[in-house]
Structure to design on (1376 residues):
């Protein structure tokens, strides 16, 4: 394994509850070798780690996967593949609902704008990023200098290696690592099951266990029109995991807050999460109402609907956790104890806590405006997103790379254009209701006289304005986007397109909010957390993984059930139980098995394990992560965690919290007996 | 017609747009005789009005209806009867979904806690209420004095007449009328159709038109175990209305805000409505998720789910209206013009506008806490509602009637006990999720450290606390409620019941919020609006009806369609179109016709008019109102208004806004051909 940073950098922050059993989403360049050896007697070798790292795949739209053949075959979750499935669907052919199987390579369907990344190298650039910011530099200049330094490092790396190069901020600003990826943009759909079995139990069973989900999907990456060679892959293990077995989950956990200070968590609890919950609930209600208009509307809305319902349930679980005083009291006690130790040995480090508390207050004054306008929560629309990119691209292109907004730096443009010029369909009616709803939400949050909102609405109500905007834009057409992308800022400013005009009208206030965020919140926080991290490292040495940042991590744990109210919840479910549950619900949605499953029941071994759980430490973003045994073989595909795992953003426990995975045996049995996917089984090494 | 107030009291407030065509929800003791005569050539006689008043029925739980036979037969909407239907249902027999037909009087099903009121007399008591408050009295004393005076007047009336006696506040405080009702509490279910046809189109078609709803339901009032004699009733008109015909809608519109000042409307737009929308959306999402768990959960949740979804759509329409600057600009211009006229002739009246603006500011400081704790939005639970009544009843009983909280005055106790000791089933699982959700909502609104909320939660998260509360109460049992209602306040305070303890714990802060509301907002507003009303009356005389207050009103209008985007929307729909729409949706919910309709299709005249529209001025609360022709016959049952009517809270227009009613012919045809309700048709005078 080529790891450019040899030393462990893992810092303990006692802000989190004391390190427990299998806690941690570990950096691949700083794995917990000793703990794993001590707890499980397993030696994590460089070779093992390197192969796994190169077999792991990041879905750039927010998920994980892995190579499972030497010919570029990728396995992930159906719910991670769903965005690509939706974009390949038409009113006549709904691949999300119906599934798909390419019988030959020629039938593998190219995906519109899917980008997969494979991590090849990690380099610690902490000192070079920190060196760009002299002590005592005012926040606004510091933020700019740091951003410029990061952009320069990335550009230098990309120019030199030809690899996608992204700096990952760790420990909330305590460290900076440069990740180099191989990038695949020719990705094709190989196989997807029906959503009814991938998401059996629907929202009711989401974040619950026992579960019965065939949440898998296969893609293949191509290079130069041919399947890519991927010699580092995870062979399927036919038997799957056993009770008590050590397993690893390798993937890209999205975001945790275990090292956040108490004041930061209180801010999350009292401001950020309530806002986010309101936003996703608003969008969910709106999409549900749209979906009710008919089957075609339901088809259009299904992807976004899954996504907001999933977010709603995740946020709701986090919120309950933060309202539970048992959790908050433990956090308070841990922070107090750390502060007392700092007070004795490193009193200056305690100033960082005040700084973070101060930045929460600063944030409270404009967080909602920032989310609504700069993060475009007020403009929930593909078309607006395109319009904003076009407007900003024209403006930013005039500047040198390191002075641009980060997403328009040279190294990011290729991925951006993949999205911007994507031929994926955009549904005007859905755009209209999403835009009407999000403008309405903004009015609920800010009142009807907010000047930026009024700029966006003109004299109209949100509903009337949304209709006017969607009728007045041609951004649905890719050719029109390309034409506009060719214009300079002055020419673009003279265009009449309603959505472009909206993006122009709100750009000034939005940029001002972003500047404020960077200067008043992000930069002070980064500096303060870096101070705390250095303090902890000085006191304790490396015992804790950094919080998740949608970058590659290694988690590990033990396969095993748990108790609820004195009753044992078994560590795996079976096909047979899924049929039983469907029968109990008269096979009505969301407990409706696809026809293929109902008709194929006789052919299946009903005792085949379906889904299983382990204690490994995961979070959203880990969806599609391979579950791997000691031999480096794939024994499962992670797809969820149970309700007890919803507080994992803040604390890890292994008492009842579990991640949930599809059992490798279930995949093979279903591919063979139900889907007739013989070529796939051959490629997976399971058939001749 | 016995009208104790002979003089017209109707005041114009030019705050509303200038009186248009058929605008107005008129008092029955101040009907717009001249306008109707002028516009329609119809003479509204005292006899006509008195019969209609005595034939109109108020559903105390929030709706309208009318007598349609001399033997106590009442017609209303299915969605008004639904609460009673739900309470009569069991897991084995879902009357809401399946409907019901009593073949004999013996089969008429007694409803658990349904109270119907029939208005007999109106008396103007403005002077006596105003006399209780001397000019210059501080707000807190004024509020108490006014409340005491109202209670005394009601008690005196009830004692003297034996009738339910309620004072209705009109013109936001400009007038007080005492309404005397005959009260029926032995109400029995006679006939209800299936919800699928009553609410055909579901939420998607709610507040839309064209519509195809058989939204009717029949009850019968009993006295001394026998059908009550109701000589004043509305005979069914078999032909129904004709295009262009003058019709009347008589019922109890719930609430409008046409006379509110601009500052009050801005407060509604920027604070009240966003809060309410968030609350109902929260509850709706929660109930939808509960309903998804299975058919029994769906059955339990259906009533509440309809109610919050309906509120969400109504609030959303109001919100869009207030965000439409065309509406707000008209309101601003009207208010400015009124203020200029006041300035010239009655400059002191202009102070009232400032007073109302001031009271909005005062309200903003505690409105959310008031809604959450005093209005119990944080405790969305039947069991909590019972607990609070028990706790407050014990405390209030110690005081003389006129010093009590208004809902515990002597004249209100009988109706209160009907609810308190209702044998209607309470579902503990549903209670748990509603309570968890509403406590969570409170935490989202107020943050996790709010002292009153923390008192309610203890150290637990909302979900855990809700489970503890429901497990720790015996208030599901009516006998236990009766036992607790017998205790004095001190004994009650020693009870261990978890819900009682919660109600005790939050009672102090809740009462304080109520006091603040009465003193800082309601009383100053009442006085200010009275001043404006008097000013207007002095300037203009009587040209405008008071805002709706869930008291009996007369609206009138013309039967007729309207145009949308240049296309004519016909004034009525037909049975045939409903079958066509169902077929287009593969008869899938919410466009699913009941089996009875599908199988009975051949027997029906498919050209029978189903629903129709008129320009009459209605709002929520008018549901179930009879639509009456000049001859005083029933030609329809109002059940909704279209989307253009959603802004009727603030402005009336007759351009596209319409109320929607079931056509009398549709009722007779369906009862005859589909429901085999021959006895009912005989009673309605349509068969021998």
């Amino acid at each position: 394994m080529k790891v450019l940073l040899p030393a462990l950098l893992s810092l303990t922050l006692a802000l989190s509850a004391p390190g427990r059993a299998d806690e941690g989403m570990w950096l691949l360049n700083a794995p917990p070798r000793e703990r794993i050896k001590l707890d499980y007697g397993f030696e994590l070798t460089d070779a093992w780690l390197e192969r796994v790292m190169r077999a792991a795949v990041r879905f750039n739209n927010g998920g994980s996967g892995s190579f499972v053949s030497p010919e570029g075959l990728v396995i992930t979750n159906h719910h991670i593949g769903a965005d690509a499935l939706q974009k390949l669907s038409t009113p006549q052919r709904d691949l999300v609902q119906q599934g798909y199987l390419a019988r030959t390579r020629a039938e593998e369907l190219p995906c519109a704008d899917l980008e997969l990344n494979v991590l090849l190298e990690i380099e610690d650039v902490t000192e070079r990023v920190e060196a760009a910011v002299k002590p005592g530099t005012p926040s606004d200049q510091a933020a700019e200098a740091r951003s410029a330094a990061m952009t320069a490092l990335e550009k230098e790396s990309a120019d030199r290696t030809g690899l996608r190069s992204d700096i990952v901020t760790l420990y909330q600003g305590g460290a900076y690592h440069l990740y180099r990826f191989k990038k695949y943009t020719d990705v094709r759909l190989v196989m997807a099951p029906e959503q009814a079995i991938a998401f059996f139990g629907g929202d009711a069973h989401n974040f619950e266990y026992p579960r019965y989900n065939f949440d898998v999907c296969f893609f293949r990456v191509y290079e130069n029109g041919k399947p890519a060679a991927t010699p580092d892959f995870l062979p399927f293990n036919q038997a799957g995991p056993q009770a008590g077995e050590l397993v690893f989950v390798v993937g890209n956990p999205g975001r945790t807050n275990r090292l956040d200070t108490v004041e930061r968590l209180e801010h999350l609890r009292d401001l950020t999460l309530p806002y986010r919950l309101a936003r996703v609930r608003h969008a969910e209600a709106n999409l549900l109402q749209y979906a009710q208009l008919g089957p075609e509307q339901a088809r259009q809305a299904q992807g976004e609907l899954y996504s907001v319902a999933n977010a709603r349930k995740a946020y709701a679980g986090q919120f309950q956790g933060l309202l539970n005083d048992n959790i908050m009291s433990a956090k308070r006690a841990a922070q107090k104890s750390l502060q007392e130790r700092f007070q004795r040995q490193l009193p200056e480090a305690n100033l960082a806590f005040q700084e973070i508390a101060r930045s929460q207050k600063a944030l409270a004054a404009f967080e909602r405006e920032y989310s609504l306008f700069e993060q475009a929560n007020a403009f929930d629309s593909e078309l607006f997103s395109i319009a904003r990119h076009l407007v900003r691209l024209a403006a930013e292109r005039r500047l040198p790379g390191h002075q641009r907004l980060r997403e328009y730096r040279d190294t990011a443009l290729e991925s951006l254009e993949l999205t911007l010029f994507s031929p994926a369909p955009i549904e005007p009616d859905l755009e209209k209701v999403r835009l009407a709803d999000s403008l309405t939400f903004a009015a609920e949050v800010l009142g009807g006289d907010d000047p930026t909102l009024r700029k966006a609405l003109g004299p109209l109500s949100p509903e009337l304005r949304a209709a006017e905007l969607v009728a007045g834009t041609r951004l649905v057409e890719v050719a029109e986007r390309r034409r506009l992308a060719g214009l300079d800022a002055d020419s673009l400013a003279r265009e009449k397109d309603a959505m472009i005009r909206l993006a122009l009208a709100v750009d000034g206030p939005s940029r001002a909010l972003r500047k404020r965020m960077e200067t008043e919140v992000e930069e002070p926080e980064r500096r303060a957390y870096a101070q705390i991290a250095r303090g902890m490292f000085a006191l304790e040495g490396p015992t804790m993984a950094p919080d998740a940042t949608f970058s590659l991590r290694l988690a590990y744990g033990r396969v095993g059930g748990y108790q609820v109210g004195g009753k044992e919840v078994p560590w795996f479910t079976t096909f047979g139980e899924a049929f039983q549950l469907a029968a109990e619900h008269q096979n009505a949605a969301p407990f409706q098995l696809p026809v293929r499953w109902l008709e194929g029941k006789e052919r299946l071994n009903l005792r085949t394990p379906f889904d299983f759980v382990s204690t490994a430490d995961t979070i959203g973003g880990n969806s599609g992560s391979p579950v791997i045994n000691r031999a480096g073989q794939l024994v499962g595909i992670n797809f969820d965690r149970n309700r007890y795992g919803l507080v994992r953003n803040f604390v890890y426990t292994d008492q009842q919290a579990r991640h949930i995975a599809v059992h490798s045996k279930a995949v093979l049995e279903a591919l063979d007996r139900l889907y007739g996917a013989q070529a796939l089984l051959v490629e997976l090494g399971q058939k001749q």
Observations:
- Chain B touches chain A through 49 residues (CB under 8 Å).
